[in-house]
Amino acid sequence: MSLMLTGEQLTIAEIRRFLSENQHVSISEEARQRVKQSRATVERIIENKETVYGITTGFGLFSDVRIDPEQYNQLQMNLIRSHACGMGQPFDNRVALVMMVLRLNTLLKGHSGVTTALVDQLVFFINARIIPVIPQQGSLGASGDLAPLSHLALALIGEGQVIYHGEQLDSRDVLKQLNQPPLQLQAKEGLALINGTQAMTAQGVITYIEAEDLAYQSEWIAALTHQALNGITDAYHEAVHRVRNFDEQTEVARRMSDWLEDSKLTTRQGEIRVQDPYTLRCIPQIHGASFQVLNYVCEKLEFEMNAANDNPLIFDEDDETLVISGGNFHGQPVAFALDFLKIGLSELANVSERRLERLVNPQLNGDLPAFLSPEPGLQSGAMIMQYAAASLVSENKTLAHPASVDSIPSSANQEDHVSMGTIASRHGYQILENVRRVLSIEAIIALQAVELKGVAQLSPPTKDKYEEFRKVVPSITEDRQFHQDIENVAKYLQKLAYSN
Fold first, then answer.
1. 216 an active-site residue?
2. Which of 492, 234, 449 is nearest to 355 (CA)?
3. Between β-strands 24-27 and 131-132, what pairing exists: parallel, antiparallel or unpaired?
4. Of the residues 53, 208, 236, 466, which is catalytic?
5. pTM of this prediction?
6. Please, which residues have CB within 8 angstroms of residue 287's CB and are 6 or more apart in sequence?
7. How many Å separate Cα 232 from the centre of its chain?
8. Least confident piece of the model among 116-130, 236-250, 366-380
């Protein structure tokens, strides 16, 4: 089974299946014809010696410099080489792979003027899983993700580094090994490859895929904590949430009720106490709000995944050809969405840390031992796991500061407002990793707490989760190096995001 790309209606769910099932990509015939038609327009511009940005002129401040026709192709090669100024650690392989898929999908809309050879080279790289090494730092998020996408383009022309079968190699050597020639860039093609938002969008898509799954995973973890603390189920009654009008809140309440059904550890109002603390009672309101953020982000990312976002754009309408310089490469809509995602994710960790604090605090956890220690005093138990969670939550508060409120002029003030959307995307994934570890800590502590309460009394679905995760992390019978437990649970939670 392959992922059919048309330039339209690509979804995050399809990207997730593409990754989890290791699919190939293919191109619809209609999309291929659109590519040919837009390329024919570029060829006419060259033949007629028209002045069009990025085809017959220089770039940025050099947009008024006319280029000799004999140097049109060299102009594109120079563009890629000079703009490959990325720094720092490379993007994850999944991000780089999705970056190629999204760039290909954009080109298939037929507004970019590239050759079918370029399109086919991208298909080859994707299907052979030749992953460009793309440094994460260096993009302003307008004029698109110039530096990251230049490193992607370098690989296509045989000049960059790639990951192939787990090894970092020269792209040219891999292409030679596979009898695939390096791409020879034609007029407009270098610009068409790098003027766009695919770095921030690809990282955003990967963050979203893992964040959405983690948000669902957080509910059974919270349900374990709820039972360990003999939480009250009345607060999840549908009537309470129906009158609030937020669908996501109502859905979280329903799922929490499902997780807790038939538990012998939960209570009703007045049995032990009249009301639970907010971190138990308000799970639907808090988690539901994060799902609202996820829904918003999903919509904006899918808009951008199917957008023509390079410059200039080519239109053939009503027997008239238009080549228009615009600013669809500006990442502001994506930057705002990814900054919002950072906030929604951070709150899942904020509330998780407060829940796990209740589990370890002897003044709040009922009859459970302090820090769930097997020998209080001699052994510290989960004491420092709560410290670690608090540290990550605090770090997230810094990372959640919106990147999009900043701008700095570039290209001699020609590009005088930029989005910083790629910084937002990178910080968003750092926050996600922190959230996953905080929830892993809550899971470890909650598993231990319900074990002390009595696993047989758990609701059937959470008992299944207990048994599943006990294969990942053992019971706490004595102090040990808990950092490995945290990492093991976090890796397992990440793996679940790509499970079918």
1. no
2. 449
3. unpaired
4. 53
5. 0.96
6. 215, 218, 219, 222, 252, 348, 351
7. 35
8. 366-380
